[in-house]
Design a protein that fits this description.
Layout (H helix, E strand, L loop, with lengths): L2 H4 L2 E5 L3 H12 L4 E5 L2 H10 L4 E5 L4 H10 L9 E6 L2 H9 L4 E4 L4 H22 L2 E2 L3 E6 L5 E8 L3 E5 L9 E6 L8 E10 L4 E7 L3 H16 L6
Parallel strand pairs: 1-2, 1-3, 3-4, 4-5
Antiparallel strand pairs: 6-8, 7-8, 7-10, 8-9, 9-12, 10-11, 11-12
């Protein structure tokens, strides 16, 4: 697994070439992968096709910048994305915060100030990345339905919200299962419940976790954070 696969991803929406070059340089110092869009329409298309942990919107775009910032909270896949507004005037900053922007970047830019803001936001971006990231790992997983005996499967990947498994036994979409997952580094198996979301007919199946207890969720989050942090230099 490469560091690139774990990198925080941000979408920068601006048509100002100097802004794009400056912010890309600052974000690259924190190993943030940046994609760009020149207007709200192309940005929306990218948001619908991919997942970004951060979205930076330049208010030089006028009304479409504010509308895009508001629309961000309506997109299921980006409801929790960390948002930044690039502004020049105080009233723009006020409007951005009213539209639930998490951070504001003020022109004219100061490299130390921008880097401080990006560093302050990074834990939030990283937490958002961890939420959806599926860590590729093969570990023994015991799966038990209400009606059938417990079967032994192997994980393919795991995230905070679910996992994929392979098994020689058939499972049905919609089935509720009890899971015992033997994660390395933990003294006891993780025990939780899941629901089968998909199967491919070749022994692979996807599950989402349900009824996850707070203590269990915390253990899983901590374990994933440790695995991901090993690939992120300086964090």
């Amino acid at each position: 697994m490469s560091r690139e696969s774990i990198a925080v991803r941000a979408l920068l929406v601006s048509r100002n070439i100097h802004t794009i070059e400056f912010l890309c340089d600052q974000m690259q110092q924190l190993a943030i992968h940046v994609e760009t869009s020149c207007n709200a329409e192309s940005a929306t298309q990218k948001l619908c096709r991919g997942k970004f942990e951060g979205v930076i919107i330049d208010f030089e775009l006028g009304d479409e910048a504010l509308q895009l910032l508001k629309k961000l909270r309506e997109l299921t896949s980006h409801r929790h994305a960390i948002s930044f507004a690039i502004v020049e005037k105080g009233e723009e900053a006020t409007a951005a915060f009213r539209a639930h922007s998490n951070f504001v970047l003020q022109r004219p830019f100061s490299a130390p100030s921008v880097l401080r803001t990006l560093r302050a936001s990074y834990p939030m971006l990283f937490r958002e990345r961890r939420r959806d990231y599926r860590y590729p790992i093969e570990v023994r997983t015991y799966v038990k339905t209400e009606a059938d005996p417990e079967i032994v499967a192997n994980s393919v990947n795991i995230s905070e919200t679910g996992m994929a498994i392979t098994s020689g036994a058939a499972v049905s979409v919609g089935a509720r299962v009890r899971l015992r997952i033997e994660l390395p580094g933990l003294s006891e198996p993780v025990i939780t419940f899941g629901e089968i979301c998909w199967t491919d007919g070749n022994g692979r199946a996807g599950l989402r976790f349900v009824e996850v207890q707070a203590k269990l969720a915390e253990r899983l989050q901590m374990w994933l954070s440790e695995r991901m942090s090993e690939l992120v230099p300086g964090w």
